[in-house]
Each structure stands twice: as structure tokens, then as C-alpha cells.
Amino acid sequence: MLDTDFFRRWMTTTAAAVDREASNLTDLDSAIGDADHGSNLQRGFTAVTAALGKEPPQTPGAVLICAGRQLISTVGGASGPLYGTLLRRTGKELGDAPAVTRDELARALGAGVAAVAQLGGAQAGDKTMLDALLPAAEALGTSFEAARDAARAGALATVPLRARKGRASYLGERSIGHQDPGATSSALLIDALAETGDAAGGAA
Questions:
Q1: For residue 78, which phi and psi values (nearest 5 degrees)?
Q2: CA 179, CA 143: separation in Å to the nearest integer?
Q3: What confidence tier does 168 reach under pLDDT thresholds 50, 70, 90?
Q4: pTM of the model
Q5: Which residues of 16-40 are buried (b: 16+ CB within 10 A; e: fewer)?
Q6: Looking at the predicted structure, is the pLDDT value of residue 38 above 80?
């Protein structure tokens, strides 16, 4: 079972990964966006870590709702609302349970991803964060590692795509050949989930 501590560690592990990869995310964003994706997410997840430490939530769902709220209030551009919606909706789907199974998390994450798709009006193949999140949510029902591999593959698969949503879509054909920064940071989020799952002994 995945308890509250598991979800706190998932968020702090994500924050560490974003810190580590912030410059790479910004480099990716400089090619097809506003060159601020890394710094924006870094600021947001720093706020998430601080909030979780100040008033620790008592359930898995509350951890994700708290994290989502922080991202919405501190991250600029489209990333804040999108990541915030992802985590808040996932948290709400988990409800007040003190611990959840991996399958329950997979279903809740699927609802969170659907909410992101609705908010952004995007779908698979549009060269957005959904290209990593959709396959990851589906694969999470199999294992943490399968979700991680699916997210990584999805992010890499954005390179040859033409962007159809978001800032990159304004570039048209020039968006082809660049990896989407949102899909890349989404893969970091799923990487962190898999790392947390590994540390917990593959808890289900």
C-alpha cells in the first residue's frame, strides 16, 4: 500500500529532479517556447516542498491537492494550471483514504491526465505533456517501471512531431525536431514516482 509518506517522498523526489534538470528543461523550452519552463517548475516545486514541510497533509490525496495548489499559485505560464490540475484532480480522486494501491493511483492519475487534456484542449500526438502522461498513466497499472519507461518513450517521441497546442504551435514546421519540454518534465514526475516505488520495495 502507498501511504501518505510515500506521496510526500514522491513530491520531494520530483522537486530534486526538477532542480537537477532545470537548465535542461529551460534549454528545451528556449528552442520552442519562452525559455522559462525549468525555472518556473523549479520555483513551483520548491514551494511544494516548503508547504509539505510546514503543514504536512495527513492523506495521500491531501498531499497531491496541496502540491497542486502550490503549483497553480507559484508557477507562471501554462505549466502551473496544467500541473496543478493534474495533481489536484488525482488527489481528489484518491479521496480521504489513508493509503492506496498502485492500481488505485493509476486510476486516479488517469482522471488527472484527462482533466489536463480537457483544460488544455490537447490529445496524444499534439507534442505536449500528454504525450508522456497518457502512456504513463495506462502503464502504471502494470508497474512503476512500466510507467517510467512509457513516459520516457513518450517524451522522446515528441521530437519528430509538429506542435499543435501551446506556445510551440506558433512555430509550425519549425517545432519539428525538438523534444517537448512539458513532456520531458512530465517524464521526470513519473521517473520520481518510479524511484519512490523502488525505494518502497515496489509497494502495490
A1: -80, -20
A2: 25
A3: confident
A4: 0.94
A5: ebbeebbebbbebbebbbeebbbbb
A6: yes
The b/e string for 190-204 (b: 16+ C-beta within 10 A; e otherwise) is bbbbbbbbeebeebe
Distance in angstroms (rounded) separating the CA atoms of residues 134 and 154 = 9
Sequence-ordered list of residues with C-beta below 8 angstroms from that of 107, at least 6 positions apart, any chain: 93
Distance of CA 21 to the CA centre of its chain: 14
Cα–Cα distance measured from residue 107 to residue 89, given in angstroms and rounded to the nearest whole number: 11
For cell 512503476, the residue is: 144
Please report the sign of the dihedral spanned by the C-alpha atoms of residue 117, residue 45, residue 68, residue 40.
negative
| Cα separation, 157 vs 144, whole angstroms | 20
| Integer Cα distance of 81 and 89 in angstroms | 12
The grid coordinates of residue 71 equal 503549483
- Measuring CA to CA, which residue among 101, 104, 142 is closest to residue 2? 101
Overall average pLDDT of the 131-145 stretch: 98
Tell me the three state secondary structure of residue 99: strand
Q: How long, in residues, is the chain?
A: 204
- At residue 100, the 3 state secondary structure works out as strand
Domains annotated for the chain, with CATH where assigned, are 2-198 (1.25.40.340)
**Is the Cβ–Cβ distance between 164 and 126 less than 8 Å?**
yes
Q: Looking at residue 78, what is its pLDDT?
A: 86
